[in-house]
């Protein structure tokens, strides 16, 4: 499935409640067939953005373009999008078949066509034979599938999903992450997904939009967001990170913890104060006499696939992830390669695509 041209564009989009700006002139484009995730902590503006696209809120200013036409003033039923809410909003007095058929009946569709479409959707979400079951008899994961089928049966060009997996237990949640991604690829439609779960965003998305305080802080592929964070906030929010203060002496040379290291970053002012980000898995344990840094192991926790160690280096604590364990109290050498050192400005800047 190829990702195509832009289908939705947000231009200078803002939203205020009681004079407080919760969305601050954001600019974003969404491409056809793309699985894009809005990721951020509570109150960052991600759900507000989704509700604006869906037509459940009216922007204070800015444009919402759908294939080039401003739809900001259109009601939800006139937009070519459908929404799956966190609480699913299924009708308890209707069986599964009628829940899915509800939107088609409102359109006055022929009964034979309704029957064909509903059964196709039940097959798509692996609920064949569930037509006459009650909503209350289903598990959380099954209810979520019905909600998705009810949205998809209307053949929207864009599906909006507002934290639809939040209420599921861990095992079912991970299964549904995989199913949702496969479903999106099979259908070839655009998914706009909202979550505060970093792993969920990295697992499912073509593009991740990291938000904070009503603005966009970084946009990129999951790999780019994880490996090349543009701010300390993004680095801390996307996975675990060691963040220390440093000084950029010149291009490709940074100092932290009292020694200079080669890095791949440039374009900073001479002697500029910076934040240095190093992922726990990127710090290598080497022989004591080969270490670029020397540290003392303070704690070790077994995490299943690796050991998590806290190592004290000249009064600074570093987290390490390694498949080999070093004993508590032992001194070890540490090596950090240039491409594992990420430099960013102290100012928490905004970034666009």
Automatic annotation (TrEMBL):
Q: What is its EC number?
A: 7.6.2.11
Could you tell me which residue ranges the ABC transporter domain spans? 8-238
Query: What does the record give as the reaction this protein catalyses?
Result: ATP + H2O + polyamine-[polyamine-binding protein]Side 1 = ADP + phosphate + polyamineSide 2 + [polyamine-binding protein]Side 1
Q: Which CDD domains match?
A: ABC_PotA_N
Q: Does the keyword ATP-binding apply?
A: yes
UniProt keywords (A-Z) are: ATP-binding, Cell membrane, Hydrolase, Membrane, Nucleotide-binding, Translocase, Transport
Say what the protein does.
Part of the ABC transporter complex PotABCD involved in spermidine/putrescine import. Responsible for energy coupling to the transport system.
Q: Which family does it belong to?
A: Belongs to the ABC transporter superfamily. Spermidine/putrescine importer (TC 3.A.1.11.1) family.
The UniProt entry, under NCBIfam families, shows: MMSYN1_0197, potA
Subunit details: The complex is composed of two ATP-binding proteins (PotA), two transmembrane proteins (PotB and PotC) and a solute-binding protein (PotD).
Q: What is this protein called?
A: Spermidine/putrescine import ATP-binding protein PotA
Question: What is the organism of origin for this protein?
Answer: Clostridium cylindrosporum DSM 605
**What lineage is this protein's organism placed in?**
Bacteria, Bacillati, Bacillota, Clostridia, Eubacteriales
